[in-house]
């Protein structure tokens, strides 16, 4: 989508400048988005929003949902719904919000969050203690649910101590049935694919975009795993790359993650 922030009359545009759709088409040429349509919109004035909705409804297929596997929910928000000075008899448990990747969550399910509570022992070794709780409510926006399926954002009311969920403290956690979640990792080995050019770096007119150099041992990267963003260091590079994460992570059922490095532009993370 091409967002029109400030509509200008034609007389204000330079006569020799290429149109924005043409620039977008040139930028995505040769990629998976090369044949995608460019839809100009103005969100403030609500121009062409109906065309975007029509395109999404008619051209983008509905993904296949997995209702039979063990449930996995990636937490993207967590909060305390209690007001200051809430009485002990009306105190509610913490709430975790996110999207279900697979499976079905129901009220009354015993759940677990990993990596859970992370700490270090006296020798500096990382210790992870999974958080166990029970689902007491499910919401989609303001609609109460008896069960939740993949697709959309779900609010999961639990019996957890609200201090654990306050201020998005659970962001990056993976929620699922108790005893049925994947192992917590501090080092991962993945197959990788480097982009042909840096994204997120401004270039002057006529200047070629900087090429992406190969990964190097001990290089610092930013890892985006699910809803977790953390630093990591390359431990080894061959056909696959081995990366050590600064914090423990649970990969859920994800098979892809982003590696962002600042090799070409110091002080700036770029894909």
Task: Write the SSE topology.
Blueprint: E1 2-3, H1 20-28, E2 40-41, H2 49-59, E3 72-79, E4 95-102, E5 105-106, E6 110-120, E7 126-140, E8 143-145, E9 147-148, E10 154-158, H3 162-165, E11 174-177, E12 184-190, E13 220-225, E14 228-237, E15 241-250, E16 258-261
Parallel strand pairs: 1-2
Antiparallel strand pairs: 3-4, 3-11, 4-10, 5-9, 6-7, 6-11, 7-8, 7-10, 12-15, 13-14, 13-16, 14-15
- Mean pLDDT metric: 82
The strand line-up of the biggest sheet is 3-4-10-7-6-11
- Our estimate of the beta-strand percent is 35-45%
CATH superfamily of the largest domain: Translation factors
| Range of helix content | under 10%
CATH topology of the largest domain: Elongation Factor Tu (Ef-tu), domain 3
Helical/strand content category: mainly beta
CATH class of the largest domain: Mainly Beta
**CATH architecture verdict of the largest domain:** Beta Barrel
The unreliable regions are 8-13
**Termini Cα gap:** 20 Å
Main beta sheet? 6 strands, antiparallel, barrel
Q: Spell the H/E element sequence.
A: EHEHEEEEEEEEHEEEEEE
Overall geometric form? globular
Counting structural domains, the number is: 3
Q: Count of helical segments? A: 3
Description of the molecule:
Helices cover 9% and strands 37% of the residues. It has helices spanning 20-28, 49-59, 162-165; strands at 2-3, 40-41, 72-79, 95-102, 105-106, 110-120, 126-140, 143-145, 147-148, 154-158, 174-177, 184-190, 220-225, 228-237, 241-250, 258-261. The chain contains three helices and 16 strands. The strands form four sheets. The protein has a six-stranded antiparallel beta barrel. The longest helix is centred in the N-terminal third of the chain and has 11 residues, at 49-59. Residues 8-13 have low confidence and may be disordered. It folds into three domains: 2-59, no CATH class; 72-181, Elongation Factor Tu (Ef-tu), domain 3 (Beta Barrel), CATH 2.40.30; 186-261, Elongation Factor Tu (Ef-tu), domain 3 (Beta Barrel), CATH 2.40.30.10.
């Amino acid at each position: 989508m091409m967002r029109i922030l400030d509509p200008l009359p034609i007389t204000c545009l330079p006569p020799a400048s290429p149109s924005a759709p043409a620039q977008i088409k040139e930028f995505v040429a040769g990629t998976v988005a090369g044949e995608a349509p460019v839809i100009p919109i103005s969100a403030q004035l609500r121009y062409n929003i109906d065309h975007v909705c029509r395109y999404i409804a008619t051209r983008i297929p509905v993904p296949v949902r997995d209702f039979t596997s063990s449930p996995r929910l990636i937490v993207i928000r967590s909060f305390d719904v209690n007001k200051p000075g809430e009485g002990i008899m009306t105190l509610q448990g913490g709430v975790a919000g996110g999207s279900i990747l697979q499976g079905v969550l129901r009220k009354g399910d015993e759940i677990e969050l990993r990596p859970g509570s992370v700490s270090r022992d006296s020798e500096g070794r990382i210790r992870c203690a999974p958080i166990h709780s029970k689902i007491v409510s499910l919401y989609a926006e303001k609609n109460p649910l008896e069960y939740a399926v993949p697709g959309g954002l779900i609010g999961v009311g639990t019996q957890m101590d609200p201090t654990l969920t306050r201020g998005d403290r659970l962001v990056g956690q993976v929620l699922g049935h108790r005893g049925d979640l994947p192992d917590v990792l501090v080092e991962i080995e993945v197959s990788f694919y480097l982009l042909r050019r840096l994204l997120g770096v401004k270039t002057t007119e006529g200047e070629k975009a900087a090429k992406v150099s190969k990964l190097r041992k001990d290089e610092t990267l930013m890892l985006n795993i699910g809803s977790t963003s953390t630093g990591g260091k390359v431990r080894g590079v061959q056909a696959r790359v081995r990366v050590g994460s600064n914090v423990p992570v649970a990969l859920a059922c994800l098979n892809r993650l982003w590696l962002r490095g600042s090799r070409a532009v110091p002080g700036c993370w770029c894909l």
